[in-house]
Design brief:
With 130 residues, this protein is an alpha/beta fold. 25% of the residues lie in helices and 38% in strands. The protein contains three helices and eight strands, in the order E-H-E-E-H-E-H-E-E-E-E. It is globular.
Length: 130
């Protein structure tokens, strides 16, 4: 079961609202099945109102920091400014089956998903005090 801090939930909802009508995106950091931090990243996709692409420099920096003892990159998040908090057809098309966590923010809620070999699977999660 995925564990998520209240601060992470609040930050994800805040970032999605602040980016509206564009898609917010960033990284989910932590250890094992515990998400403890978000890292907002620039959405470098040419059409940020409908798609997202995490700034590759931010992703490389996060992996480099993890190798140096920092929090692990567990996955990423993005918002659906006018859609539900579930994988879209575009999300499914770009899935890699790498087992990473995807948080999708939409309609004031957050959906938590694993990008598995068979497609996206909804994750059970528990919210804990920060």
């Amino acid at each position: 079961m995925l564990e998520i801090s209240e601060d992470v939930i609040a930050e994800l909802l805040s970032q999605a609202a602040a980016s509206h009508p564009l898609e917010a995106c960033g990284l989910l950091l932590g250890a094992e099945e515990r998400v403890v931090e978000t890292r907002a990243c620039a959405n470098v996709h040419p059409d940020p109102a409908r798609h997202f692409e995490v700034d590759p420099h931010a992703l490389i920096d996060a992996h480099r920091a993890a190798r140096g003892g920092g929090p692990q990159v567990l996955g990423h998040y993005h918002s659906h400014p006018s859609g539900p908090p579930e994988p879209s057809a575009t999300d499914r098309k770009h899935a890699t089956g790498d087992g990473r966590v995807w948080a999708i923010i939409g309609q004031g809620n957050i959906g938590w998903w694993r990008d598995g070999l068979g497609g996206f699977e909804a994750l059970s999660y528990m919210v804990h005090d920060s």
